[in-house]
Amino acid sequence: MAGAPKRILKEIERLNRDPVPGIEVSSVENNIRYFNVIMGGPSQSPYQGKGAGGRFKLELFLPEDYPMSPPKVRFLTKMYHPNIDRLGRICLDILKDKWSPALQIRTVLLSIQALLSAPNPDDPLANDVADQWKTNEKLAIQTATEWTQKYAVDAWTAKPAV
Prior knowledge:
Elements: H1 6-17, E1 23-28, E2 31-40, E3 55-61, E4 72-75, H2 105-117, H3 127-135, H4 137-151
Antiparallel strand pairs: 1-2, 2-3, 3-4
């Protein structure tokens, strides 16, 4: 990790020392800017899953000009969420125009976890999911729960190999 920006090293150190509840972060050995993330679905949300909790795999990459520009984050686990599209891209203001260099990896991950608790169909990335959320929220929540059970429970019972 010699030659790595001090800011990134400090953030990694803090993530290791004081982990974010419900989120596991591991840096890739040969690339200090790339992270594997396993995020637990928030309780009382369709992403918690029934019985076994939902565990979603994400990738997080810090661009060369980080912290002047936001991290690139996407879900690798298939999701049914109005603010996450089929490619796993996330519609979240702090990942776009509301980014500030004062924010950190930790803040970004907590914000994504909060987005799972409170989907915003009025600012969608997946228009079809947002439409369903607006017209039949009960069915949308049921579908999100089913997708969590199907894609985010059994596949991630073990930590990722890094």
